[in-house]
Amino acid sequence: MTADPPAAIATQEKEIRLDNIILLKALWPFIRPYAWMLGLTTLLVFVVTFFELLMPLLTQKAFDGFILPTGPESFAILAGIKITSFTNFCLIFAGITCAAFVIDFCQSLFMEYTGQKIILGLRCELFAHMTGLPVSYYDKNSSGRLVSRVAGDIENMNEMFTSVLVFIFKDLVLMAGILGVMFFINSQMAVTLFLVVPFIIVSVLAFSKLLRNAFRTIRQKIAEINHSFSEGIIGIKIIQTIPSKEQFMKRFARLNQEHFSAAMFQIKIFAMFMPFIGFLGVTSIAVILWTGSFAIMDQTLSLGELIAFLSYMKLFFRPLRDLSEKFNLLQNALSSAERIILVLQQPKARERITRTRSPLRTIDRIEFENIDFSYTPKEPVLKQINFSLEKGKSIGIVGQTGSGKSSIINLLTGFYRPDAGRILINHIAHDSMDITDIRSRTALVMQDPFLFSGTIRENITPRQESHKDSRLESALEKADCTFLSEKFAGLDTLIREGGNPLSSGEKQLVCIARAFAFDPDLIIFDEATSYMDSQSEQRVHGAMKKLMQGRLSIIIAHRLSTIRDCDQILLLRDGRIREKGSHRELIDLNGEYHHLLKKEMI
Amino acid sequence: MLLKLILPYFKRNWLKILAGLLCMILVDGAQLIVPQIIKTAVDSLSTAQLDRSLLVRQCLFIVGLGLGMAILRYGWRILLMGSARDVEKGIRDDLFRHVLELDMAFFDRTKTGDIMAHATSDITHVRMAFGFGLMVLVDTVLLGGTTIAIMIWTDPKLTALAMIPMPFLVWFTRRLGHKMHAFHRTAQESFSQLTEQIRESFFGIRVIKVFNFEQTIGQKIDQASTDYFWKNLKRAFVGAMLKPLLALFFNLSTLIIIFYGGFLVMEQRLTPGELVAFLQYMGVLAWPIIAIGWMTNLFQRGMASLKRLNKLLDAVPSVRSPDLAARPPTLAGRIRFDRAGFSHDHQTPVLSNITMDILPGTRVGVTGPPGSGKTSLVHLIPRLYNLDAGQLFIDDHEISTLDPDLLRAHVAFMPQESFLFSGTLKENILMGRTIEPEKLNRIIQTCDLTATIDAMPQGLETIVGERGVTLSGGQKQRVAMARTLIVDKQIILLDDPISQLDTQTAHTILEQLKCTNPNATFIIISHRLSALAACDWIYILDKGVIAAQGRHEDLIGTNKFYTDSFQVQQFEEAHDS
After folding, report:
1. A307 band by pLDDT with thresholds 50, 70 and 90
2. pLDDT digits (tens, 9 = 90+) for B456-496
3. Which of A543, A567, A546, A560 is nearest to A594 (CA)?
4. For residues A110 and A44, is the Cβ–Cβ distance under 8 A?
5. Is-contact B556 B562, C-beta < 8 A?
6. Chain A touched by B316 (CB under 8 Å)
7. Which of B364, B375, B374, B376 is nearest to B335 (CA)?
8. Which of B59, B86, B209, B232 to probe by mutation at the A interface, max A CB count within 10 Å?
9. For residue B575, what pLDDT is reported?
10. 20 to 30 Å CA-CA from A62: which of A419, B56, B376, B511?
């Protein structure tokens, strides 16, 4: 648990506006499969409310029918049946109470189930949609932000289905029901009590707005405090050796004080609102007593009805506090929904071509023909790139950071498309092919070895093929991964988040084993050994060499030793190929490559 | 004692707490008067009498009472909840100060996440227990006790019968509350796992796409989401049970009052007003009774959190200033290890039998394979850790006789990870020290930061770190170096300072360092042997011992590790420039 990512703090909460609600329409396709469940819960809400409204009414009937009978005979009429025994009446009362419990429980649970089910579906759909988005989308958006779409924002939506529908809807139905029943019992008294409603509406709205700001500030401040705290721990060596403890303490105390002030503001808001609602409640008791007394004298109200009024008013004030908090949750949920919809509306990457021509069986030849490329218009990254590569050969690409090395890979793997020129695979234009076909014949080994959490087996098994352990084990063996069976549990070694318990060299070897297992035609090494110590590097190099045999390989490196043995070396500077040839040829050329080489001989 | 942590803050706020409690007690009292008024009103109505003037007085009294209650409620909320927040603030400040003073060995044993949990949830639990919990306790005892007393006074048997469902209710709230908390936690854990898997998938999107892992990953996320779904549903099950259950027990109590109380009224042993008041009191009782179960959970959690916090605050740093610390005004910068040994757990040695004598003004390089103890070696010099065996002298002072803060005032140390705090570049370099601008400019130049800073939107005032501009590894390293060198110190320790810099820049920076600090003692750890070539002496560590030492020229050809590494690097380095 560390501090919240900054994205979570910057989340703006929006007012409920009509267009936000219209946005929900975009979510309808995801909700539709569960519509009957939503319908059923809504129905149950009405049943629950009915039972809740029944309780004070039964009390009234007990008073007026039996305890203080308004006529000479003791009886009560329930659903058209006349009950003359008080004991029987109470038994029925008890039965209704139990039934109310069961229905209330079922309704709450079913609502939760429905909400969670919708959320589950939505989350999986959203994730699937996102993995289909082009890589450029991932490059443009910070991964923290993307994660919070699938995690946090979906979670907020969950609030919408549970809190908002359960509480706001349920509470509003209940409050409306109370007003209705009161009107039915005694319209004149009910109208007098209705006078309190505008005060309630105004105060709830004002309160929810203030509260939202208060909560937001508190959340922000807490996030800052946590951030500062974790920074203090991570940077402890620096803080203690500088030493600058006092300065950090001061900064922390200031944040803490700000948080305190924000919390006090929130306390004040509650301290105004809650007593105010309480005051309205007490005043309404006085109003009921006042108007009720006269009504009883006029014989237009029974004592039981007066008592029912008192109970209803109590019931009426109960959900008010929650209501304003739930309004804020609704606003949160709506802005989350908006962000989710924005992602869902992102077009997926154009990867599959529907009208398949001849399917690609093997890659025998790759050719870049006058390729120009830029990430943002007018800032060219690659200019006039020409090269070709055949089976069994290798190309090494060197150049400074920003010279465009990685962009060549981005084009070849179809993550991006060139602005001009053609990429030919087996003499066929790249963009008329199914990119997944090309990718399924390609393996990529990157600078940060990427293994997802799970077993080694899961990490290196190609999707299309049956799990044959013998094949996977031979892949591990070829990639010098014997340490897996020596130190760990072989194929069943469980990789945790961040690749633990493997070291980065070991992770890279597993990545190479994955490439072996996939048996690709084309292998791309993108700075595969750059963060490694010399010994791990040599092991990885050994495995790389084995993997390269009989395939097409492209090696990007900033260390010359890695690419020395390549059949062809491209030296890139400012997006152009400056020198091209074998190690020997480039030395004879006596140009930039030779210059670099000479410097390292010093 | 367990409460020593919060007692000072209670003392600081005692007047507020007392006044707050007084307000609360008055509100509780006022709350009990209302049903009494309803009682008299109902009784007079049931006999079909209406005393207008009495009714006017009663209604006005209720409204007045309501107003008074509102004001008092405002009072106790501000006073009591404010005090609770003040306690929270105090504990948090204490905790942070304490954490900053702990030694490195503590941070090695303790996960950052755990300390963060103390700072967040534990402090919240303590606030809830001793702020809210205490309020609820007083409220429950006073309001609940008085209400029950009034009920008993009205009719003991009716009270006893009405109370039958209550123990069940308390038991259920406690149990469900407990369960809810546990389920909430498992759901939370499942959620963080899900989040981590999502994060990891987005991070590796390129690999996923190239290897067509989309479906595999999709299935994994589906699984994790489903796991979260069920765990969440479990929590929801308990949550959905709680409110209807409370309503059930209350309705049953109400029913008992109506049934038995009704008989009593029919037999004229109880007035209708008393029965109505009884029902009203039952309503008043709802909160204190629900609160009992809730409060015990709150206190349990609060006490557990307090214990954890106390344990953390009781952790004493093992690196402390001795009582009679030597306070030499200046240090020449001689560093002498005498058969020094070090281990993290007092069992597996990280360093053993290290003997070095580094004279003032010399430049010493340290290299060796990963895990050979290089970093631990330099950690000993600013006394981030204590030695396990042997001795370490700074000048002629045995290191444990020196005040660590004073020692560190003479030592500049650049750790391996170049960490930037969120703040401006300038703040990151100065770290609260006052430095004249010319000096700052000079260091910026020495560390080759001029171009970097000029390219920043706000120059030196640009906010960096997690919430600002992201710097590259090399840029971070140079900023960290500037931070280390901005104050002239006698001993300069650089742990892998140039790993992210290109050869040329690294070379220039290291050369300039020698010129600007001619008298300082340097220890530089690096894998890049060309960077160490200019050192006066080079140590090669392997598995915690000095495997070889000598000058660059001596080591080439005589030491296998050094020679091999140097040859490999020869090919690599030149290209970076």
Report:
1. confident
2. 888 889 888 766 677 777 888 899 999 998 888 899 999 98
3. A560
4. yes
5. yes
6. no
7. B364
8. B209
9. 47
10. B56
- Give residue A6's pLDDT: 37
Can you list the domains of chain B with their CATH numbers? 15-314 (1.20.1560.10), 335-576 (3.40.50.300)
Q: What is the largest CA-CA distance in chain A?
A: 123
- Chain B residues within 8 A of A407 when measuring between CB atoms: none
Q: What is the three-state SS of B28-53?
A: HHHHHHHHHHHHHHHHHHHCCCCCHH
Q: Residue A530 — pLDDT band, cuts 50, 70, 90?
A: low
In this structure, chain B runs to a length of 577
- Cβ of A450 and B116 within 8 Å? no
B residues 77..116 contacting A (CB < 8 A): 77-78, 81-82, 85-86, 88-89, 92-93, 96-97, 99-102, 104, 107, 112-113, 115-116
Tokens of A78: 């329930």
**CA dist list (Å): A582 to A568, A585, B332, B571:** 5, 5, 55, 16
Cα B281 versus chain centre, distance: 44
In this structure, of A3-7, A375-379, B233-237, the range with the lowest mean pLDDT score is A3-7
Q: What is the DSSP string of A42-65?
A: HHHHHHHHHHHHHHHHHHHHHIII
Q: Are B360 and B334 in contact (CB under 8 A)?
A: yes
Measured between alpha carbons, how far is A313 from A277 in angstroms, rounded to an integer? 12
Are B211 and A518 an interchain contact pair (Cβ–Cβ within 8 Å)? yes
- pLDDT recorded at residue B324: 76
Question: What is the CATH architecture assignment of A365-601?
Answer: 3-Layer(aba) Sandwich (3.40)
What's at B529, amino acid-wise? L
pLDDT digits (tens, 9 = 90+) for B163-217: 999 888 888 888 888 888 899 889 888 888 888 888 888 888 888 888 888 888 8
Q: Which listed CATH number (3.40.50.1100, 1.20.1560.10, 1.20.810.10, 3.40.50.300) goes with A6-344?
A: 1.20.1560.10
B338 touches B353 (CB < 8 A) = no
Chain A CB within 8 Å of residue B168 CB:
no
- Which residue in A has a C-alpha nearest to residue B114's C-alpha? A1
Q: How many helices (H) and strands (E) does chain B have?
A: 24, 12
> If contacts are CB pairs under 8 Å, which of residues 235-254 in chain B contact chain A?
236-237, 239-241, 243-245, 247-248, 251-252, 254
For A558-598, what is each residue's pLDDT tens digit?
A: 667 778 888 999 988 888 898 899 988 988 888 888 877 76
Give A 207-226 residues with CB within 8 A of chain B: 222, 225-226
A–B: how many Cβ contacts below 8 A? 408
Nearest to A364 by CA among A336, A393, A340: A393
- pLDDT given at position B93: 92
Same fold: A6-344 with A365-601: no
- B108 or B523, greater pLDDT: B523
Q: Which pLDDT score, from 0 to 100, does residue B316 have?
A: 83
Q: Is A581 helix (H, G, I), strand (E, B) or coil?
A: strand
Sign of CA dihedral B373, B374, B377, B379: negative
* DSSP-derived pairing of the beta strands A428-429 and A442-445: unpaired
Residue ranges per structural domain of chain A: 6-344, 365-601
Q: What is the pLDDT of residues A253-280, one digit of tens each?
A: 999 999 999 999 999 998 998 899 889 9
DSSP string, A368-425: EEEEEEESSTT-EEEEEEEEEEETT-EEEEEE-TTSSHHHHHHHHTTSS--SEEEEEE
The reported pLDDT for the residue numbered B524 is 93
- Only one residue has tokens 């409110």, namely B243
Chain-chain contact of A278 with B564 (C-beta, under 8 angstroms): no
The pLDDT tens digits for A98-121 are 999 999 999 888 888 888 888 899
Task: Name the one residue in this structure whose structure tokens are 């009560």.
Answer: A76
Q: A169 falls in which pLDDT band (50, 70, 90)?
A: confident
